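Fold Annotation — chain and its backbone
Next Lines — sequence and tokenised fold

***
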Amino acid sequence: MKTERIRTGDDSYTLRVPELDEHYHSIHGARAESMHVFIDAGLKAVKNKPSIHLLEVGLGTGLNCLLTAAHQQPETTIRYTALEPFPLEKEILDSIAPENEPERGRFWQIHHTPADGDAQITPGFLLHRSMQKLETLALHDPVDLVYFDAFAPRVQPELWTTEVFRLLYDLMSDNSILVTYCAKGDVRRAMQQAGFQVERLPGPPYKREMLRARKNS
């Protein structure tokens, strides 16, 4: 798909897909949105675990993965499984690559990880990039944290269903959480029907709410 680079409200970049009229991140601040939804409401909510198995649905530009590596606690190891059946091409990634180190080096480590292969991003951070689709995903160990960062329900309605959230529920450990930027009522109800306890949280800039779902023991 053709993409356009967009400078967002916090001076970080995202991509727009013209044929879908969809952005990879918020135009009001790509980095701010990722920090608020996935790091502050997700990673920091499970920070007391010595080991975290994290699943991202929609690696995209790699921003969530990059920020997770940057905010990893030194005493915590992270196994990061990223699903992306449609990886971005190198020239697109070139246009949004961070300029500063060590972020730039980590950015390319993430995107140079082979399809269905592994890479050690930091000493305690192992990335596995998967080309599998969610409905065919098989994991050896349960997941402690899910970043659900698919395109919006308007664009990918098939990913925001009770059936999909039930698949995720079954992959997750007890007392694990799922976070997403989307706060639509039908998405919240689909999560609840899948078995999650769901809470609305304040959203990132210019967005009123987000959702955090918990699988209780």
Remarks:
- The longest strand covers residues 172-180.
